[in-house]
Amino acid sequence: MIRLYVICEGQTEESFIKEVVAPTLYERQIYLCPRLVGKPGHQGGNVKIERIVTDARNLLAAGDAWCTTFFDFYGLPNAFPGKAQAQQSGSPDDKADCVLNAMQAALTLELGENAMRRFIPYLQMYEFEGLLFSDPVALAQGTGDTRLAAPFQRIRAQFSTPEWINDSPHTAPAKRIQALFPSYDKPLHGVLAAREAGLDRIRAECRRFDAWLSRIEALADPVAA
Question: Record's InterPro entries (predicted)?
């Protein structure tokens, strides 16, 4: 059994990993252990590089576990490695790669190359809610109002992938949901919608997310691990 810690930005991401992602990976003998970023008892958020360094160092200390991250680009502070440069980049892919490369370099400097061989950096573009637009019908079902399927579908149709729904303060994925469904509760409705959509549908629609999970699945191959 391979143990993989997932440092999560918040409680919704933690629940998503535990309820939607982990069961499928467990079938491949990969045990996901989601953890909120920061000290025990912390509610998540405020994703500073210093906190990630501390968490990754502690989680990788045993020498046999792996570690990855599950954060939103949108919620990263401007001081986060690569964030300021990413704002000047072109596509969402360029922005994500800019931050991931800078984070990898910062962690390698602190933890060393040996520990970093068991670290898989990942960044969600732009928000967790972007994944939910993989299936507008399931998203509407998650809110409990199936009439929202059509307007959610119109939003989805504007982008080649749900991962590219943008990060403006007014048009970020969560803001778009709230505009149509003001009582949107991220930990409740977000996870319900993800469960309705299912991991296969989300992976089919979200290339970067799928590539991240594929890399994790490859750990089950002794050569890859």
Answer: DUF4276 (IPR025455)
